[in-house]
Amino acid sequence: MNTMHSVNAVSGKRSLLRRFVTVAAAASVLMLGVVAQADGGGGKGSFELMTIAGVGDGYTGKLDVKGDGKFIVKDEGDKLVFVSNVADGELNMKDGRQKHTVGDDSKLGLKKGQKVKLTIEKSKLTFPEAGKEASGSAPGKLSMLGKESSVTVKYTVKEDGGKYTIKRASFDFDYTKHVADGKKVCLMLVCVKPTVSITITGGVVEAKK
Fold it and tell me: Does the structural domain 42-206 have CATH classification 2.60.120.280?
């Protein structure tokens, strides 16, 4: 047996393997760069929602309806688009109301695959300078269940190393403008108030001005 030949063969295979891994790693980095460039920035964060339920127009016997969820942000040139896959695990309702909100028995019609999308034109936003904060309000379009409604988003953001931290943002919307029959959701005599409040804290946005 030619030991030297065997050692050279093994060494050659290892060298080839190292070159392959290096090329594969470089390709992966390049692809990630292309994907990031194609996405044009983004971001993510979490939100809380709140409304009430009760009997009659005064919502007697008031019950808090709360939930929390997560979202991603897409920088689409002249717009920022916030998307939450609410019907696919990105919205968690408290107090056992998951099934009635985004589950199989959703009273809103939020079935699997349904998303909620908020779109805001960048020109309507104030972007703070490096290390500073800015507050304001901006009109947005909320898309849910195939219908759109107008909302006003109040926000405070801080520039942080090329990113924008959402210290707080909030808006209200009327869910009856999105459901098929335009009516309040009711279970027996208890109805859910149409106004839903959304609050975002600690989100991060990577976007060009």
Answer: no
